Amino acid sequence: MKILAATALAVLAMTGTVSAQDFPSRGVTLIIPYSPGGSTDLLGRQLANELQAKWGQPVVVENRPGAGSMIGTAHLAQSAPDGHTLLLNTAAHSTAPAVQLNLPFDAEADLTPITMVATSPYVMVAGAGVEAEKFSDFLAEAKNRPMFFATAGVGSSSHFAAELLMQQGDLPADVVHYAGGGEANVALMGGHADIYISTTASVMPYVNNGQVKAVGILGGERYDLLPDVESSAENGIEGIEIDGWVGLIGPGGMDPELVARINADVNEAIQSESFQAVLEANFVRAGDTTPEQFQELVTREMALWRQLAQERNIVAQ
């Protein structure tokens, strides 16, 4: 019996499985696949504080930037599925695998979506070189002169949002890739690009300062922070009902009960006053999904972006 028990413990250690009741049994690492200081990093650090208080174990943020968030994601995919290594990523989790075809992991089988933490619409902002003040005028202007869409890099969510709008709106524009959202906004302000599409966390500080102007919302409805800005659906453009998001993801093969436990704890944490304050400061809303809802969203988006990458001939550079 002692031999059997020892064998069972050894197997448990090798597989990395852990029950929901025993979690966490030690410190938890929260990977942020971006450099410190950005909105995802700020949300991650506040979430780590909330979960550390709830779990009674250290929750340490570890920044692993690079390759459009795929360096940090690859590290997660190689971790034990015991919940002690987690990752907080943006919608780049769904877009990057569509163009990075030789990843050292399976973007679906080796990862476990747990819950969406924050969400926001994609906002289209314009630089001083764009005359249009609203979406309908922009569409007319874009069809009458060459326009350049700035992106935060090949395969970024801003890149795919731009390509989707160009496809569905039949816009003869080109894309110009920059090293990140900050550089893309600077390009607009400097007149080196015309349009940038990204989440509210990325563009609202520049909109509020009057450095760029919001001319459209991608999706079916307007956004409460920009009530006078038209949506794409209002202008007859369908098929771009997408939102940006920040979500918590674990390694593949996690026990469903453990996933449900972490999901419930995170969804409770993001309703706290302190976390709500960070959401508000970054112009985003709380996510709060079930694991099944988040999994369905990720699966649907990965299929959408793979198809768009094929249709628009988007490949990693």
Quickly describe the structure.
Helix content is 41%, strand content 20%.
Topology:
Blueprint: H1 2-15, E1 28-32, H2 39-55, E2 59-63, H3 70-77, E3 85-90, H4 92-99, E4 111-126, H5 135-142, E5 148-151, H6 157-168, E6 174-177, H7 181-189, E7 195-199, H8 200-208, E8 213-218, E9 243-251, H9 256-269, H10 273-281, E10 285-286, H11 291-312
Parallel strand pairs: 1-2, 1-3, 5-6, 5-7
Antiparallel strand pairs: 3-9, 4-7, 4-8, 4-9, 4-10
Helix pairs in contact: 2-10, 4-11, 6-11
Describe this structure in words.
The structure is a single chain. The protein is α/β, with parallel strands linked by helices. The protein has two domains: 180 residues, D-Maltodextrin-Binding Protein, domain 2 (3-Layer(aba) Sandwich); 115 residues, Periplasmic binding protein-like II (D-Maltodextrin-Binding Protein, domain 2, 3-Layer(aba) Sandwich). It contains eleven helices and ten strands. Strands 1, 2, 3, 4, 5, 6, 7, 8, 9 and 10 form a ten-stranded mixed β-sheet that branches. Helix 2 packs antiparallel against helix 10, helix 4 packs parallel to helix 11 and helix 6 crosses helix 11. The longest helix has 22 residues. It starts with a helix and ends in a 5-residue tail after the last helix. The N terminus is likely disordered.
